[in-house]
Amino acid sequence: MTSRRRFLAASAAMGALTAVKGRAAKTSSTGFPYTEFESRIARRDFRDMTKDVLPTPCMVVDQQIFDRNVKLMADTTKANGIAIRPHVKIHKSVDVARIQLTQGGGIGLTCATIAEAELMSNAGLKNVMWTKQPASRNAVERAVALSKKDPTFSFVVDDPLVVDWVEQAAEANNAHLKVLVSVFAGPTRQGIENGKPAVELAQKVAASKRMSFEGIMAYAGAAAHTKGFENRRKRSASDLAGPRETVEMCKKSGLPVKIFTGGSTGTYNMDHENGLTELEVGSYVFMDTRYFVIGGKSNDAKYDDFGGALTVLTTVDSKRYPKQVAIDYGNKAGVRPTDVVKEMPWLEVSTQGAEYGMLKWKDGDREPKLGDRIEIYCTVLDDSTNYYDRYYVARGEQIVDVWPIMGRSGAAQR
């Protein structure tokens, strides 16, 4: 939920607690002392805390599905001989990142912002890599400061001018930097041209007294959501052909390439064939509707390798008009028409306003009732988690943990 309205639903209106996933609203108290909600969470006392007492909208993680997802990724990559450096932009949570490192086979973490990198490193998590080059004074100084504080931190560059900037800052601060070269792999948002330009940039980094050249980053983002396993396999191989050639050219020029990083959840079981040494996988822990439709190796119609572990829990607020109900999952909470209702596929999600969403239907064997609690799979994990400040971790209906979402990146934090 947004910090502005954090637990706004914790009011007298919660006296009529509701049921979960389409069951009729309860009219009697469950006995949970809602006035103690925040203090219970602070002391990690989840007794009698079930989904039906949660303020909505909120994010709920199914612990069993989450654990299976983490294990599958760890087992598959280990069998394929490739490392994983999970991307924290998906969850922005130290708790999730720690599980990925201690239980999920992660060798480090990938971050999209310097704020995320600082958060993870300051929490004691090592081998954090920032996937954007520092192109402002603020970003350069923070990258240098974090490098000095945490020698395992690394970041990327794709321009000789940035190399000059960070070298000057490193010299002024007596710091040593671990740097990768970002190369083109499909998306045109960043990445120097493969071949000679990339090799020359890598040589410039390696020649610096303040930087060590760590390797090549090539994020083939377009391949990740290509529909059909074989189509995706071909696209990933094509997009990584140039970067793979660049890696070989670097090696022939005498540059040691310690890391060749890229990949995604969508290509987790094929990119070991493309020369990558590690995968920047992220979505696999929770999954979203963008991935559900891309097709898997054994099921070309549905990508079901990893289960949908994360849902947005919402309440039916109003039912006054035919074939539709209003819910409290609105624009400010990240609702999208491409979201999918869990276990009730005949319901269609639509937007309605800042604090309202809408569920509509033509046919169905069960209509939502006033007060019902509905779980919805969000469309884009990266975006949706930025609206909320915690995950409620559930085992069945029981809440067993709460993970703060600490890496949300508003303007002041970036």
Describe the secondary structure blueprint for this structure.
Layout: H1 37-42, E1 58-62, H2 63-80, E2 83-84, H3 94-102, E3 109-111, H4 114-122, E4 128-130, H5 137-149, E5 154-157, H6 160-172, E6 177-182, H7 196-207, E7 211-218, H8 221-224, H9 229-239, H10 241-252, E8 259-262, E9 278-279, H11 289-292, E10 310-318, E11 324-327, E12 340-341, E13 348-351, E14 357-360, E15 373-377, H12 381-384, E16 390-395, E17 398-404
Helix pairs in contact: 4-5, 5-6, 7-10
Description:
The chain has 414 residues and is α/β, with parallel strands linked by helices. It has 2 domains: 3-63 and 305-406, D-serine dehydratase-like domain (Lyase, Ornithine Decarboxylase, Chain A, domain 1, Beta Barrel); 64-286, Alpha-Beta Barrel (TIM Barrel). Helices cover 28% and strands 19% of the residues. The protein contains 12 helices and 17 strands. The strands form 2 sheets. Strands 1, 10, 11, 12, 13, 14, 15, 16 and 17 form a 9-stranded mixed beta sheet that branches. Helix 5 (137-149) packs across helix 6. The protein is globular, with a radius of gyration of 23 Å. Residues 1-29 have low confidence and may be disordered.
